[in-house]
Amino acid sequence: MDQNELKKSLSKLALGDIKYFDSIGSTNDEALALAATDAPDLSLVIADEQTAGRGRLSRKWFTPKGTALAFSLILRPTAQEKPHLSRTVGLAALAVAESLRTRGLDAQIKWPNDVLIRGKKVCGILVESVWSGEDVDCAVIGIGVNVLRESVPITENLLFPATSIEVELGQPPDRVEVLRDTLLSFLALRPLMITGEFIAQWQGLLAFHGEPVQVEAGNMPPISGKISGLDLDGSLRLLNEHGESVTVRFGDVRLRPLA
């Protein structure tokens, strides 16, 4: 992967600036710095290797050279999009899932920010917002995808079972093609983000829908119940053992299926 290859493959997409790095600490950190210099909407930062990648809750994200996708998009929301920015993580997850499903893979979204294939994590998403006073200036959407088998960390370092596109397909895909298809899906889905149809699409790909799960939220006691769907802001709805609907908001949350 190199900058010329990327720009050629992505030339027909309505993106902003494209910044490629052979190696970088974190694409999100670079995108946040670029956002502060007024980088245009949909500017892309991508690296062949990430040495200090991070996910939610300060977890490290493993991105060895030449094996995965590690990229960040700068989203400058329109006035219509700003009331719906809590849906941004769903936009990214749907884009990844749709690109995988076009390859015949049964991708699902583990709320709030992971994409699974056959119950194993293949993608993680980190969204960080930049504020100007009380107004959101932009969101930086970091996406990491395990493409080749070497991108999957060793089992003892995992908090959730993981896989790669290569393992699930039985052959190595082209990373640039996966990136292009994901960005195409993102661009197609973005206009829908402000609609009810968007929540329906996100809900339709929810992993463990109708199944019992446990959600840990900060220092609160764990919440157990069956996933019943999503609220309009993308929050998760559970049906507890008493038949009551419980809403789980975004934040310091961890979801695990119950056997």
Describe the structure.
- The chain has 259 residues and is of the alpha+beta class.
- The chain has helices spanning 3-9, 27-35, 88-101, 165-169, 175-189, 196-204; strands spanning 18-21, 44-47, 68-75, 107-110, 114-117, 120-132, 135-146, 212-217, 223-230, 236-239, 245-248, 253-257.
- The strands form 2 sheets. It has a 7-stranded mixed β-sheet, sandwiched between helices. Strands 11-10-9-8-12 form a 5-stranded antiparallel β-sheet.
- Strand 6 and strand 7 form a beta hairpin.
- Helix 3 packs across helix 5 (175-189) and helix 3 packs across helix 6 (196-204).
Could you name the key traits of this structure?
259 residues, alpha+beta
Tell me the layout of helices and strands.
Elements lengths: L2 H7 L8 E4 L5 H9 L8 E4 L20 E8 L12 H14 L5 E4 L3 E4 L2 E13 L2 E12 L18 H5 L5 H15 L6 H9 L7 E6 L5 E8 L5 E4 L5 E4 L4 E5 L2
Parallel strand pairs: 1-2
Antiparallel strand pairs: 2-3, 3-7, 4-5, 5-6, 6-7, 8-9, 8-12, 9-10, 10-11
Helix pairs in contact: 3-5, 3-6
- Low-confidence stretches are none
What's the number of helices? Answer: 6
The coarse overall form would be: globular
Please give the alpha-carbon distance between the first and last residues: 41 Å
Cα-atom radius of gyration? 18 Å
Strand content: 25-35%
